[in-house]
Hints:
- The chain is of the alpha/beta class and 254 residues long.
- It folds into 2 domains: 17-199, no CATH class; 204-235, no CATH class.
- 54% of the residues lie in helices and 17% in strands.
- It is built from 12 helices and 9 strands.
- It has a 6-stranded parallel sheet with strand order 4-3-8-7-5-6, with helices on both faces.
- α8 (169-177) links the parallel β7 and β8.
- α2 crosses α3 (50-57) and α2 crosses α12.
Amino acid sequence: MEKAQVISSMISRGTFDEMVDQILAYGKNHQSAYTCCANVHMVVEAFRDKELRDVVNNADMATPDGMPLAKAMKLNHGIEQERVAGMDLFPALLEKASKQGIKVFFYGDQDAILDQLEARVKEDFKGIQIAGRFSPPFRELAQSEKDDIVEMINGAGTQLLFVALGCPKQEKWMAEHRGIISASMIGVGNAFRAYLGIEKRAPMWMQKVAMEWFYRLVQNPKRLWKRYFVTNSLFLLLTIKGLIFRPSVSPSSA
Length: 254
């Protein structure tokens, strides 16, 4: 898949279905690959943090998770790009994985959430093959613990690994484990909780007009006001700057 530059991040272009099929194709072959679901926050943090920028740009795929990214691709490159959000990819991947016999593994979040998630997924997707689930401790892991986790994931025959550690931790974790974990990894943030209805998503009309961030802000203003107002403002300024320089679309295998 080709990629196009949004600020300093290379974002994959293509349809929702094409990206779903590509992520699954990695998993079918036990190819060690990772997918970032890039939103405004990730792109701005990648602009500030070279390590994260390298992680995003070296990803096998970086989907345009936020509608503002899809709009920026149109403004800067003339690309008609639909939004490909992690929260939408999660159930779509589960549905196809259940039909194609692809083994899935859930990594991250809390044990209580994973208990609910496994029960709900088994109910919604008959025949789904869940290779396992694991909630890592919220601390730096010893190398022996890291090795045990890799052995657990690979030993279970995992083909599709959902990673829910939050940005940028999950992206850096996936990059660190490419070539080590024999599965298609995808960072899904809060997708487990959104799927369970614990965290509410904005109405579809707000998603389509790039206002989902405002819906989240109203729900949790104390935690998110600085992130959204500062990050969104910087994204807007950098996007306008990009209109002047108009970076080119460049092919990149995904």
